[in-house]
Write a structure and sequence with these properties.
The structure is a homodimer of 467-residue chains.
Chain A (H helix, E strand, L loop, with lengths): L2 H14 L12 H8 L3 H13 L3 E4 L3 E4 L16 H13 L6 E2 L12 H14 L14 H13 L9 E4 L1 H13 L5 E6 L3 H9 L3 E8 L3 E2 L1 H10 L4 E4 L13 H13 L4 E4 L24 E6 L11 E4 L4 H11 L6 H11 L2 H27 L5 E2 L7 E5 L10 H10 L2 E2 L1 E2 L11 E5 L6 H17 L1
Chain lengths: 467, 467
Amino acid sequence: MTKYQTIAGQIGEAIRSGILEPGTRIPSVRAVAGQHSVSTTTALEALRSLEGEGLIEARPRSGYFVLNRAGSVAAAPRFQFDSELEEDARVHLSIVGSPCRVRFDLATGDPGLYPLDRFGRLVRRASYRSPLLLGALARGTGHAAFKQQIVRSALDHGCRISPEEIIVTNGCIEALNLSLRAVTSHGDRVAVESPCYFVLLQMLRALGLVAVPIPCDPLRGMDLAVLAEVLQTTRIAAVVSVANGNNPVGSVADDEDKAALVAMLADRKIPLIEDDMFGDVCFAPSRPPALRSFDRQGGVLWCGGLSKTLMPSLRLGWVAAGRFTAQVQALKYTSTMATSELFQVAAAELMENGGYTRHLKRLRQRLARQHAELRQAVVRHFPLGTEVSHAEGGYVAWVRLPEAEGHPVSTRQLFTRAREAGIGFVPGYLFGGREFDDCLRLNAGYPWSREQEEAIAHLGQLVKQRQ
Amino acid sequence: MTKYQTIAGQIGEAIRSGILEPGTRIPSVRAVAGQHSVSTTTALEALRSLEGEGLIEARPRSGYFVLNRAGSVAAAPRFQFDSELEEDARVHLSIVGSPCRVRFDLATGDPGLYPLDRFGRLVRRASYRSPLLLGALARGTGHAAFKQQIVRSALDHGCRISPEEIIVTNGCIEALNLSLRAVTSHGDRVAVESPCYFVLLQMLRALGLVAVPIPCDPLRGMDLAVLAEVLQTTRIAAVVSVANGNNPVGSVADDEDKAALVAMLADRKIPLIEDDMFGDVCFAPSRPPALRSFDRQGGVLWCGGLSKTLMPSLRLGWVAAGRFTAQVQALKYTSTMATSELFQVAAAELMENGGYTRHLKRLRQRLARQHAELRQAVVRHFPLGTEVSHAEGGYVAWVRLPEAEGHPVSTRQLFTRAREAGIGFVPGYLFGGREFDDCLRLNAGYPWSREQEEAIAHLGQLVKQRQ
């Protein structure tokens, strides 16, 4: 046996016997070389041969990780992001969100859709009454009146939560981040809908978690049959679902599917993190129930926020963390300590006096109308065979382009060309890799205008040129 | 050989050969039992015997972890927090900060010390001019005018930073948290001053990092000789230092020591995270330089914030992240996305027109006076042999109680008794374990009053009763 075979054999044995668990990081090439007093070339050879055996895998910039035990358990599907794609993603993410003329990119609305002046007045009044509100309760989990309004508003759609389990956060992103950290450990696998909101994918990566994609249908949401299969073969530490107004596909799951998902995970004691940011802006006459409404065991961490409903980019969110409340509280404390109280007080007043409910009703109607306009424009201007999701809630539509001369097209070059013309959108691969290279996400947050119509026509032209 | 010995032998071999690296988590008792088809009792016996050999250690609620290789490298010192102590810590931390009559606990000042009304007016004016300021730049790293003021103010004390490397955060806690995550991986060791700010200790734990204590002298700060020794034998992923107005001991390090610390770490390419929250409230005539001023390689992540200077509990902080800027930006994005702009605009205006500098001068003088009053009261009322730190900056004083009848006393019971009398302080063990059980931290943030004098007298009585 050569040196590298000896080393590979030793590490392979550790993996097969379970000493090195799936998801564990293997010592670096340099470290392996040092331990066995061999060159880094030999060490690398050993690791590459283990990779060839399917025992470990290289992750860009992170090193080698132990895969699921070969032979005993099928490898779970994973999002395929190679290093080239990740480099592209970094560049594109740094561009998405920087201002451009026609804003089909971020999931946000025209300022005119929101009660900005009213909210501003409430903020000023609160700050005037008590200047100390500009700070935060030193160790608080949120302002009592605001929590009370979250509880009351949730009850309106049949979701029973208690103020004690609420942690107010700096936006829903923090709620998701703390929830994930509360229920997972480094290296764990987390099932998410595919395509998946790109910030969530980046978040999982930043936390050292592995995203396991579960197909998400534009009409029905997460495919529960696939999830059930994955759970048979793979240890999943948590599931994240955007059941209401899914980002990016726009689906709202049926009540039956919601109940089934919650029950499936409760049976297996797997925490379910619900991103319900868009629940209040779904288009059906009555607000669709949260997954959390079907939970009897405190296993659903219900995350929400106000930046899609009350005011664009307002950094005010929350999680009702059920039986994980103590863990989330502890993480909040060491992550951002507390959330400023001023906006909480103002939001509580707006929610209390009913103005918020009326505003939501109007906002939903306008978003539904804008979605219809956007969809029709895409149908008018994009090539035959283009598929557009029929969103049931939220801000965004998901578009899949037809093949050109029998070959799938990529929206990555389209992204650059569109930006040159001042038109923003989010390229599909950011939602999960090459599989979505022929897709794009369009924001329907702005009232329809001639400028938007022309922008969609221009986009359609660019697509046709590639064909 | 019995079964447990076989299992222990196998895992032990993996540790000794370096396959399982120091800091790695060992599979759970249940997992080990499953892998080897033995009972959990046998598996536990195997892990306990490895613990006895000094190869692994149990961490409460986290499982077993591989220690530094026995025999080859001396084990680094670690903070000793057993499970009983951690349970106490959880209880005490949940109490510290909840309101009590005499607030010697949190490091915060009387509202009368701050320009609350003025800041409130600036906030109202900004929100009136642009209601959208209530939100945040979707992917921004902070408001340009605020960053500019941070740069200018840093330059006043000889610290050159650029706006491009600043990430504005929800308080300095988020700055520290993101900085740690940017430069470490799960299981890494981080050197900190001992005693250590309790939130930082909790943060390290929450991030799966191991705190390595470096003694911190109330006059000179971090002991660089000990640090140098530790660096010889232990892989340290980062160092965190509160060089100006250390929390809890109050020291300001000499310029020579600051330069030496920065150079020592630059040589070894170890990132230095500087918590400079108290740099602006040190009592010397001129503001002491930041560690960052001595950095020529972008290896110092300079963290600051306004809640100790402009307004209590204001969630507005920042980090100038040097060569780690891209990493911190990415983590900010997936942790809390962005920071609300309103307070940034108001703070920038206050800092720009000079009112802030005048305010800081007054605040420093008042804090210095309050420190003197507090120290004298402790000397008057506490038993002979009590040591009180002579803080050179910040809000807090560090007190060590003398032995009682030849035995060290604990401030944990004192904490409970004092709270019953409405008097808050922070018990010493929260800053690093039993070693500081005879210590307490007192806040000097409130103007001296008869009530405070009586509270210190009462505390002194309680201490004497234990003797």
